[in-house]
Structure formats: structure tokens, C-alpha cells
Amino acid sequence: MAKTRTPQKDILSRVQDLGAEALNKLGEIPGGHKLMEMANESRSRLDDVQKKLRGLEELEKRVAKLEKQLSSTTKKPASTTRKSASSARKSTSARKPATPNKPPA
Questions:
Q1: Domain count of the chain?
Q2: Does a structural domain hold residue 30?
Q3: What is the pTM of this model?
Q4: Residue 88 forms part of a structural domain
């Protein structure tokens, strides 16, 4: 098994070396320096986005906790308001609707 791993390491190390050479030559070609600057800038932007996303995770946890607290506090009084709301509906349904006054013709 050691024999099969050595060629893989050789291949991987060769690919790594070629990649490093290509990156070094990239700075020498026209426009390559600007491309490297853009890549470094995008990396820093990505780091900023990751920091913001970590902050969002904490906020989501806080919101979930507050939602649980809110749901537990609203469940208790909700049963009393439903009873009063249903009794209010019964009294309003018994009323006769007011007829609009028609203007004289």
C-alpha cells in the first residue's frame, strides 16, 4: 500500500509546485498584478462577510429565545380574550343593521 501512496504524493506535490509557479508567473504578465490585487481584496471582503454572518447567528438565537418568551406570555391571556371576543360577537349579531337615509327625490 505504501507504493500506491507514493505516486499520489508525487502527483499532488507536482500539481502544487506547478500551481505555485503559475501564481508567481501571474504577477509578471500584463494585468496579472491587478488580478492578484482583486483576488486579495475579495478574500478580505469574504472575511468581513463571514464575521457578519457569525453575528447574525447570535441574533437569530436571541430572536428565537424572545419568540419563545413571547409565545409563552401570550398563550395565557389569549384564552380569556377569546371568551370575551366570542361574547362580543353574539351581542353584535343580535343588532339590526341601520338603514341608510335616502335623500328625497
A1: 1
A2: yes
A3: 0.36
A4: no
